[in-house]
Request: fold
Amino acid sequence: MFLILLLNALFASTFTIAKEAVSLVPPIFFLGIRMTLAGAMLLMFTWFSRHRSSFSLKRTDYLLFALIVLFHIYGSYVFEFLGIRYMSSARASLLYNLLPFVSALFSYFCFNELMTPKKWLGLLIGFAAFFPILSEQCSGQECALGTVGFISVADLLLVCAVISCGIGWIAMRKLTRERHHSYIFVNGFGMFVGGLLCGITSYFFEVWPAFQDFSTLPFWRSLIFLILIGNVICYNLYGKLLHIYSVTILSFFGFFIPLFAAFFGWLWLGEEVSCAFYTTVGLVTIGLYLFYQEELKQGYVVGKSKN
Reply:
């Protein structure tokens, strides 16, 4: 369990650094650089390792790899980075706690995982937990993109990022568990091609920064940190843990992420969070706990690997 807690602390730190990064350069432009470099690193590692055979793709895998590029990387990160510009890093990480509930629904439809009454109750509590924070009056910065009903567009962008991420992890599970591809190669392929798509998108839709922006210490600090921690360590540690635990169980422990993010945001960026934030964290924890107990009873925790 220590590795799961460490993973969540590292994930939380990426929200804080990402918040700083989008204040320096256009978000999709930054993603293009980050993902292309990170993907190239992982692909080079795969090429010189015992997993070189992963480069031989089968036609039946093309659709899954397309889902990895479009949803696991491009969609989830573009939506997240566009939304995080207008909210605190802690709020963004909290909204990402919708992921276990989205993953559970996708697993129900894609993998025929059994949904018991207790699981449905956990899902309902978890979904309802987000109403306090979604319905609270948004700040001037968060409302800059407008609202849809009582929900800000910034919040909707994060919700879209979560849905995209959930689809991506389902594709990742199929490629690594059923098709036996290396998770390092799958991540590297998705990041590299997704990064190129981000670069193309940025060229047509963003105003590119001046070249002097690249010489600043905060830019390089954010870029290097997010590549090493976010792309290399977190994603591949998560992929490794998928061989031991289900997507939903790993997501269950994600309720620690907004707490870590609130601390890092306060320490690094001077951010503050509302009472609704802690209310949502508490209710999400209850919902996920109920769901997790049923996962244990149903045996969805895979025995720990000896490798």
